[in-house]
Amino acid sequence: MAKKKLIITLHANGPSKATNPNLAYSPREIADQVVDCWRQGAAVVHYHICDPVTGAPSADVSLFAETERLIKQQCDIITFPTLGALSAPSEGRVSHILELAKDPATKPDCIPLDVITTNLDAYNAEQKTFTSLNRVYANTTETLLDIVKRVQAVGVTAVPMIWNIASVRVIEKLVEMGVLKTPLFCEISVYGEPYLAFGHPATVKGLNSILDFIPADAQWRWTVSVIGANAFAILANAIELGGDIAIGLHDYPYPELDLPSNAELVGRVADMARSMGREVATAAEARELLGFN
To answer: Which class in CATH covers the domain with range 8-290?
Structure first.
């Protein structure tokens, strides 16, 4: 029996060109890289918006709209933009998504749904101290229900993000309630350094301890990302277990690979998957598999 095709998600852009000069800032840079990665086999793109010159995080709706428009003009990749400020109430986190959804030329396909409330304090190993002591990311049940309701009303899919076993248990209940529909597209993240209080470690064991709690009969299509560490050993494990994968410069700059481009990373993953007997799904095939048509 043929193995199921692999869906590759591109995590397009992140903190600073200082970590890897190939990081994209402007809508044009982001879109051009997305198209290059789509040609290499990426079927989904998660991206952040930032100031086109400085790279500082931005919530400018016009920049989101320009990015979506430029991507959609050139390819059929599934778009998966980030939400608004973590501290904003639910309506503020998705206000740009609701605005983008008014025009088919800028409407995203899906958005991330962070399902647990957690500390966001990273750790500085050299100074042996936390970078902050009171940073909390609040995701109350009321917030989750409201976000899902708002985006579903405009035809955008909420993709639950799994950071630990508790996340799995919350998602189970949201599926049981009918708030989240199956087949479910969800994303598992494991974390390297700096240490983050909410994440499982970026190891095969860290990933598998989450997978152990996903119900065996669940119609969940899970993808794996590795934040802050080289992903390839963990992604190979995910590919072998039948999962999907996410990779990109948002997650890690890959200095040990001489600071590659996003397209080079996607190409490496696609080649690895084929060598393991899994073909790579096109964006059109991924839409069908995820129920996004």
So the answer is: alpha beta
